[in-house]
Every structure is written in structure tokens, then in C-alpha cells.
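User: I need a structural model of M15 family metallopeptidase from Streptomyces rubiginosohelvolus for a docking pre-check later this week. Nothing fancy, just the predicted C-alpha cells so I can convert them on my end. Input:
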Amino acid sequence: MTRPPPSARTSTLRFRKPLVVGLVAVLAAIVVALGHPLLKPSSDPTATPGQDSSPFLPAPSLSDRPPSHAPHRESRGALDEADGVVADGVTVLDDEVPAVANLDAELLDALRRAAQNAADDGVTFTVNSGWRSAAYQKELLRKAVAQHGSEAEAARWVATATTSPHVSGDAVDIGPDRATDWLSEHGSAYGLCRIYRNEPWHFELRTDAADRGCPRMYADPTQDPRMRQ
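Assistant: Understood. Predicted C-alpha cells for M15 family metallopeptidase:
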């Protein structure tokens, strides 16, 4: 093949050099604009070359992430343990819990004697609800009305703050089912009686039950004369 004259080769090299330089400059500008991680030093000293959790953009630092929400705290004035709210696992032996400590002394004594004997049968009494403040009872009634659709229907399950035996410390709601079954069978010996057929967890003290047995149950609280005061 015939080689081009020197002047022709020189012209070609002069033309290619600015073109190559221009392309390199354009590519560099694009890489910088995209913030390619290859141009940034790794912030992980344990990272090995070629490893990157994100092949396109580096993971945001902690300061770049939105702050996590703090654990929810009840607003001032909200119901809490002091109103009789009960946490899971509370038993009739927990004197430091107001829902237990504020129960009628005779009722609490009967519960503890029964619980001691029930433990021999492998049964533990937990307190789902005991004493309640008037504010707590009002809130429960409000929720019951919203759930059941009317005050009349709600009254089958929740009493008013002025009539509820929970507010006076004369009633306790026991769980789990094994405990309520045990009390239904043996509770009268301790004076502990179910009062309402629709609430197998609700027990009150009837001191003469050991001799006479528990009184006949009401269908629900609306049949209880005490609720009509």
C-alpha cells in the first residue's frame, strides 16, 4: 500500500487529538455530575476493592435519613396505671398495681386464698381488670357505646361510673379461661361468685356463698338492680 505523504499524516493526527481530548472531558463531566461512587473514597475501612452495597449511589449517611419517631408517650392527662389500667401478666399478688391494691380488702383476701389453692392445680389467676377510676370507667363506657351503637346495648357490658362495682373496688375480671373455669367450680367456697352469665370473667364477693352457694346470675348487667340507681 502507498503511504500517505508526511503532510497528510500530520493533518490527521492534529484532527484526532482535539476530538479525543474533547470526548474525555465530556465523559469526565458526566461522571462528576452523576456522583459516581468510583470517584469517592469508601467510607467503610473494611470494604474490599470492587465491593459496594449500591452500584449507583452510595447509601445515605445517618444524618441524611429522616429522624425516627420517638416511642409513643401518652399525652398529659391520659389514662394510665394510676387509673386502674392493667398490663399483661398482673396477678392478684401484685400489691404495687393500683388495680389490685385498691380492691376491697375482703375481696382481695378471698382471691389470694383461692389463687393459692388453684396454683396446686397448675392454675394461675391473672387480673384483666380490677379497681378502676371513674375517668377510666367513663372512657370504657364511651368506647362501648361506639362499638355497640347505642347506650342501651353498651349497658349490657359496661356500667356507668356511678354504678360500676369496679369503681368501688368490689369486682375483678379474672383470666385466663382455665382460671375462670376453676373459679366457677370452686369459687363459692371462698365467697367468689360470677354475677352475670354474659361475663364469665367477672367475679364479686358474696360472703355467705360458702354456706348458701352463689346467688342466681343475672343475664347481663341491665338485669342487675344496682345498675338502675
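Before docking, keep this in mind: Strands lie at 126-129, 171-175, 192-194, 202-205.
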